[in-house]
Amino acid sequence: MPDTEIRMRKMVQALRENRYRITPQRLAILKVLAESKGHPSVDSIYDQVRSRFPTTSLATIYKNVAVLRDLGQLLELGFSDDCNRYDGNKPYDHPHVVCTVCRKILDPDMSSLADMTQALTRETGFTITRHRLDFFGICPDCQASR
Amino acid sequence: MPDTEIRMRKMVQALRENRYRITPQRLAILKVLAESKGHPSVDSIYDQVRSRFPTTSLATIYKNVAVLRDLGQLLELGFSDDCNRYDGNKPYDHPHVVCTVCRKILDPDMSSLADMTQALTRETGFTITRHRLDFFGICPDCQASR
DNA sequence: CTCCCTGCAAACTATTTGCACCGTC
DNA sequence: GACGGTGCAAATAGTTTGCAGGGAG
After folding, report:
1. What is the domain extent for residue A67?
2. Residues B17, B80: one domain?
3. Cα(A23)–Cα(B81) distance, rounded to whole angstroms?
4. What percent of chain A has pLDDT over 70?
5. Which residues contact B106 (CB under 8 A, 6 or more apart)?
6. Which of B117, B131, B138 sits opposite A127 (nearest CB)?
7. Is any atom of strand D within 7 angstroms of residue A130's beta carbon?
8. Interval B24-43 mean pLDDT
C-alpha cells in the first residue's frame, strides 16, 4: 500500500474516532495533504481542492485544517511574515530548512534535539511540550539562478 | 557603564551611521528596548513609551521597530498565533523557551547549534543565513499555580 | 531650509466567525 | 430526521501605508 494511501486512512480514522463526518470536501483536502510532498499553504490546498470541487470555499479549508491540526494529524508551521504552511505526512515536531527565496521547505535529518530538550528541562524547570526549529537560507536551485 | 547604557549607545550609533535622525520618540523606544529584560511586544513598547510621550502613535513604534530590525539591532520573534516579540539586547539568532501559559520568554544556554548548521549545509547544499529555535512548554511559575 | 519623522486614519491580509441551507450518518 | 458541515459574506487583529504637518540636522 502506498504511503499516501496509509496517511489518508489514518486521517479518516482519526476523523471517525472523533465523530467528524466524512464529506467529499474533507476527503479532497485529505488527499491533497497526503499526496503533497512539500509543505502546502492554505491557498495551495484551496487551489488543488477547487480543481475537483470548484465551489469549495476558503473558509472550509481553514476549518478543516484546524480540525486536523487539533487532532494531531497535521503539523502547522506558522510564519508571521508569510502564510502558514502544513505538513500532513509528518504531523509531529521536526526541524525544517526554509529557502528564503522560493519558500521551498525541506525536512533535514537531525537527531540531537531530544538531548537538548532534556537538558533544557533540567536547566529551566520548564515542562517542554513542543519545539520549533527552522533554518533559513538559500537552496541550491536559487543559488544557481543568481 | 551599565549594559543598558551600552546598548543605547550602540543603537544610537547604528541609527546615526545610517543617517537616521535621533528623535525623542526614537530615544524613548531605544530606552524601553535596552532596559527591557524580557521580550516585549509592540504593544508593550507602545504602553511604556506612552507613559513618557502620551501622543506617540502605534504606527511610529512599528516603523521604528522595523528600522532597528533592518539595521540588525533588534531580533524579531514572529509568532503567527500571537503578536511579535522583540529582543533589543541580544539582536542575533539564539534559542528561546516560551511558556505557553503566561507567554514569558527565556534565553537558555545552548551551544551545539553551530555544529548543526554546518552539518546541514553539507547535507542540503543550502546556504544557511538564519535559524530559529523555540521550545514551548510550561514554566515553573505556571506549573505551580495549577 | 530641507527632508525625514510623526500621528492619524484608512488599507491590507491572513484568518475567523455568523448564519442559512445542505448532506452525512 | 437530526445536527454537523459548507459556502458566503462580514468581522477580526496585527501590521502597514498615505499623507499633511512638525522638528532634526
Report:
1. 3-87
2. yes
3. 28
4. 99
5. A124, A126, B96, B97, B139
6. B138
7. no
8. 97
